[in-house]
Write a structure and sequence with these properties.
This protein has 252 residues and is α/β, with parallel strands linked by helices. The protein is 36% helix and 29% strand. The protein has a single domain, classed as Vaccinia Virus protein VP39 (Rossmann fold, 3-Layer(aba) Sandwich). The protein contains nine helices and ten strands. Strands 1, 2, 3, 4, 5, 6, 7, 8, 9 and 10 form a ten-stranded mixed beta sheet that branches. Strand 5, helix 7 and strand 6 (174-186) form a beta-alpha-beta unit. Helix 3 (45-63) packs parallel to helix 5. It is globular and about 45 Å long. The chain starts with a helix and ends with a strand. The mean pLDDT is 93. Bound molecules: S-adenosylmethionine. The site of S-adenosylmethionine has 20 residues, from helix 5. S-adenosylmethionine (SAM) binds at residues 43, 55, 91-94, 97-98, 115-117, 120, 137-139, 154-156, 159-160.
Length: 252
């Protein structure tokens, strides 16, 4: 582990508000209530802009052939699909970053990105005017039953208090596969925690592997493959050993 990667968890925990202006994530805590009532609101303009500043270089690098580990894992998940999809729905698309790589890998695919944050969707539309984006919730996807070849969760399930409902929506809308990109998984019980994400209080879940799989299976989704993503070990912050993965699920 490099000196920098040791310093980041220490700085982000000791100076959460200060570091939240520079780091994507800081101030991890299991004391979710300490953020106060109504703290976890939809991402604001300022949060959207901070995430955007962090993501534009990551996507430029990926398109230039130097993808970060999480982009590599999304690519591996797409490659693991048995056939090239012709339609994609990304839930929690944020500023539309994945649309840039997905449409580069699958130019023939029709893409729709949805996000609950109007600020994120405004940025997505500004950056990628040729793509379709909509403000909508993962709990009530704006798509008919079995209408998309692949539904992709873009690192969003980890932020959803009713994640089981989102998984059931993904199963309803797909006619083939679901990719859960950037799910944080542990062998310990599923745990909710809080942090600052791009300076805004955010809640997040780390999923017990068997429980997440059980919810997928209850919705008729079978795990086909998993692909390692970013190094995201919550042991450094919360004492919960975890990994970030992309899961490819198939309608049974
Ligand atoms: C960590 S960001 C990921 C953005 C983008 N997909 C990426 O990989 O960079 C999570 C996104 O999920 C969105 N989100 C959270 N809860 C949601 C929900 N219930 N329905 C739709 N989007 C949601 C947030 O607004 C945010 O843009």
């Amino acid at each position: 582990m490099s000196v920098l990667s040791r310093l980041v968890p220490i700085a982000s925990q000791r100076f959460p508000k200060l570091s939240s202006r520079v780091l994507a994530s800081s101030g991890y805590t299991l004391d979710v209530d300490s953020f106060g009532d109504g703290a976890f609101s939809v991402w604001s303009d300022a949060t959207a802009r901070r995430q955007d500043r962090a993501w534009q270089p990551i996507i430029a690098d990926a398109l230039a052939g130097n993808p970060r580990e999480d982009v590599v894992s999304l690519h591996a998940a797409v490659d693991a699909l048995p056939a090239r999809p012709s339609s994609l729905l990304e839930s929690g698309c944020g500023g539309g970053y994945n649309s840039a790589v997905l449409t580069a890998w699958l130019p023939e695919a029709d893409y729709l990105g949805i996000d609950i944050s109007a600020s994120m969707i405004a940025l997505a539309t500004e950056h990628y005017p040729a793509q379709n984006f909509e403000v909508a919730s993962a709990y009530d996807l704006p798509a008919a039953d079995s209408s998309r070849d692949v539904v992709i969760d873009g690192v969003a399930l980890i932020h959803m208090p009713d994640w089981q409902r989102a998984v059931s929506e993904y199963a309803r809308v797909t006619r083939g596969h679901v990719i859960l990109h950037g799910v944080t998984v542990t062998e310990l019980p599923t745990t909710r925690f809080a942090k600052y994400a791009y300076g805004q209080p955010a809640q997040e879940f780390v999923f017990n592997r068997a429980e997440l799989l059980g919810v997928a299976e209850k919705n008729g989704l079978r795990l086909m493959s998993t692909h390692p993503g970013l190094d995201y070990d919550l042991a450094d912050y919360l004492g919960i050993p975890s990994v970030s993965e992309a899961w490819v699920l198939s309608l049974a």
